[in-house]
Amino acid sequence: MDCLIHIDGGARGNPGPAAAGVTITTPDGSEPLHEAGYWLGTATNNVAEYQGLLHALKAAARIGCTTLTIRSDSQLMGKQVLGEYRVKASNLRPLYQEAIKLLAGFEKWEFGHVYREGNKRADQLANQAMDAGRDVIVFDALSQE
């Protein structure tokens, strides 16, 4: 199954209270498969972005996605995942390595940058989780069956 993923991570302060937002839909965006905000506690913005990617990849595997189109407003993370930038920060290396390992489990994937206005729902979900101080699962296709 082909899936479109939007992810966003943020921290209020850097580091500060942090969360990540994830949406997984059908390729045209018309059918939601997973929408959630994940509370991360205290983290940096970059850690929150990577945590968003990791949560998205785990959910996509669980849902049965095989081909991924991933969109994020984090140019740094995107360029690192695509191998264009080295991962210099020691706190990001294990997150990057886990992401690459998870990506290897999919038949095909692509990663692209989207400007903030094109990532509004993932941003909203991250903010909901930060406001609540806990995970906020809005929709999950598997729990609806």
> What is the gyration radius calculated from CA atoms?
14 Å
Strand content: 25-35%
- Number of helical segments? 4
Largest sheet: 6 strands, mixed
Number of strands: 6
Poorly predicted spans = none
Look at the helices and sheets and give the structural class.
Answer: alpha/beta
Principal-axis shape: globular
The end-to-end span amounts to 17 Å
Helical content (DSSP H or I, runs of 4+): 25-40%
- Strand arrangement, largest sheet? 5-4-1-2-3-6
SSE pattern, N- to C-terminal = EEEHEHHEHE
Overall pLDDT score: 96
Report on the structure:
- This protein is of the alpha/beta class.
- Helix content is 34%, strand content 34%.
- It is built from four helices and six strands, in the order E-E-E-H-E-H-H-E-H-E.
- It has a six-stranded mixed β-sheet with strand order 5-4-1-2-3-6.
Q: What topology emerges from the helices and strands here?
A:
Blueprint: E1 2-11, E2 16-25, E3 32-43, H1 45-63, E4 67-72, H2 75-81, H3 93-103, E5 108-113, H4 120-132, E6 136-140
Helix pairs in contact: 1-3
